[in-house]
Amino acid sequence: YSKKYDNESKLRLDALTVLANLLMHKSITCNYVIESELLQLLIVDLTHDDLNASYQAARSMTAICRCCPQFKSNIAGLGAATAAEQLEEMAEARHKPLKDEIRLLRVELED
What we know:
mainly alpha
């Protein structure tokens, strides 16, 4: 994501927001989003400089953990817990909704 928020960055953030909303409201089944390539992209987005993108990635992963608990190990295996732990301190200072979502994600991954 560019600091300038170019069109591609805005579209990517919008896509993450839509994905997170669909998953949170169970409007799409997790079976469509469990491919390791997509999960890896969500991990990358989770650790990105754009905290809004991180927030949407965290929302998506939390929703996947809740509706498809069998994929928690896949998400954890890709480094989500470590990424969430590293991000939590920064989120504490700069983005409260992200901080709250990171905590939810960490709880889901620990179950």
